[in-house]
Amino acid sequence: SVVYHRFRHLCLLSDRLLESDSSYEQGLFHLERGRLAVTEKDIPQALKNLQAAKRHFKQDGRTLEYSWSQLWLSSAAYQSGDINEARSELDEVLTLSKEKSIVHTIESQARQVRPWLVGMQKDPIIGKILSAFMDEVAVNEAQLATTRRNLRRIVSAVPMATPRLTIQALGRGQVKINGKTITPSDWKTQAVRDLFFYFLTTSQAKTKEQIGLVFWPDIEPAKLKMRFKNDLYRLRRALGPEAILFENDRYSFNPALDYDYDVETFLTHLALATHSSNIQEQIKHYQAAVDLVRGSYLSDIHMDWVWSEREHLSQLHISALLKLAKLYLENKAPDMAKTTCQKVLKQDTCHEEAHRLLMKTFSILGDRSAIARQYQVCKQALKEGLDIPPAEETEDLYLQLIA
Fold this sequence. Notes:
By secondary structure, this protein is mainly alpha-helical. It has three domains: 2-154, Alpha Horseshoe (Serine Threonine Protein Phosphatase 5, Tetratricopeptide repeat); 165-257, Arc Repressor Mutant, subunit A (Orthogonal Bundle), CATH 1.10.10.10; 269-402, Alpha Horseshoe (Serine Threonine Protein Phosphatase 5, Tetratricopeptide repeat), CATH 1.25.40. Helices cover 68% and strands 5% of the residues. It is built from 18 helices and six strands. It has helices at residues 2-17, 23-39, 43-59, 63-80, 83-96, 103-113, 127-154, 184-187, 190-201, 208-215, 221-239, 262-275, 279-291, 304-330, 334-347, 352-364, 368-385, 392-402, and strands at 165-168, 174-177, 180-181, 244-247, 250-253, 259-261. The strands form two sheets. The protein has a four-stranded mixed β-sheet with strand order 3-2-1-6. Strands 4-5 form a two-stranded antiparallel sheet. It is elongated, with a radius of gyration of 29 Å. This is Bacterial transcriptional activator domain-containing protein. It holds the Pfam family BTAD. InterPro entries: AfsR-DnrI-RedD_regulator (IPR051677), BTAD (IPR005158), TPR-like_helical_dom_sf (IPR011990), WH-like_DNA-bd_sf (IPR036388). Residues 261-402 form the Bacterial transcriptional activator domain.
């Protein structure tokens, strides 16, 4: 928990203080102790430590840390009932936040102290300015989450912070928060987890009634209201209240979250491969895309709303594998081409283009017997699966390769 990590950090700081007379170290200790006191609602202790932190940071000339202390001190003063002190501290911070060089570090602290500043946004003197600042913090937070998400998809050489929410749908559905898997007991029921993936998949916000037709088509309106309310409560309890938005009587997934979704990453790599003119870049992105696929889309959900997206993504996956196999052949990597074609045939044994590519691959490898075997495998698969002979193109290629 946040409290535990702050307590642990506090213990480390107190150990260092025994060996240091630094005003900066003293300031950090009191700031962390004050923040912990705010979260524990020990306001007298918070005021004592945060005022001490201010003194130490001022003595050491630490403008940023000084403003952090003021931000937390304003929340503590407000909770203590000292409105004038809260206004005074906050006014200085908001003035300082106009400096572009340090605004982001102040916003970072503001995100942490936000729950304890909500009440001050109604203050007749400073509330309007504070609300505008917190709105800006929220906008920048959303942009930051989007930027992180896009970078994770295309940058592999630079270490990136783990997203808060990691979502996997290319295979069995799975969700992690800060690296920890949400278990069936966390979801409470399978329907709650499925509801989350429905929100994630649908392109438009939905009303309660529209969602009810998908999940509980035969339920009475009164029971639908209670069922939906309970499942939505459980969903938000598992992932956080901000995971699902409610606007204009419609519900939707919150795209401003810091999340990573394998389907979006898959599509991003396909787009990057398609728009690149460099063969190595194309190979890199197609390979990255197909490596994400662990199975069919949401393979453990058996509802009508899944089928269309499952088929769409399956076709994209097969298309990516075929393009990748061709690129490997062009790049003189027949073994990689062979492995890639075999993945296509594992999904669709009747895919003639994959059979033809495999025959070409065996030709490059100089394995005439493998060409003949692959042709026979193709012929048998088409007979058993579709009751048709190989296409003329397949016949002609086979005769050409064994000539």
